[in-house]
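name: query_chain
kind: protein
chains: 1
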Amino acid sequence: MKKRLLVALVIAIALSLSTTGLVLAGGGAMPSAEGKAVYDYITKTSPYQKWALFPGKDKLYKGQHPHGALLTTYVNDVALKGINNRVGILADDAIIIKENYMPDKTLGAVTVMYRVKGYDPDAGDWFWAKYKADGSIAKEGKVAGCIGCHTAAIGNDWVFTGPVK
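structure:
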């Protein structure tokens, strides 16, 4: 009888977690496509600085406009798996985060690409965000400047940092 009760309790907990949207391996429910929700996710729920670096990139590699003079790029597990497997198009919930540094190595901004199913099919379903060094939102959403520039990398799933296929 105790074994059945324990099994029932485990099943109830599992169902509760799945209905609340928690993703055990992903560090919590994925955020909505909104600047504050994404920032809270990448700084509190699943701190991006604990994620893997973009494959083939070290910290503070040479950057170019409009990003910083020096860059550090992090990827969540979803993006990392896709990049390593050269899937061509990263899966929904993939997140790529770029720390944008000034020449003196001070942080200038943090930029984010976050794939959200159905968010913006014309721009690869990427949600774009730019946060100032203090965490305030500089840009978010369907950012024309981001989309316009990254269109040049559409054959690599809108990603410039390295190959995804």
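note: Residues 2-20 form the longest helix (19 residues).
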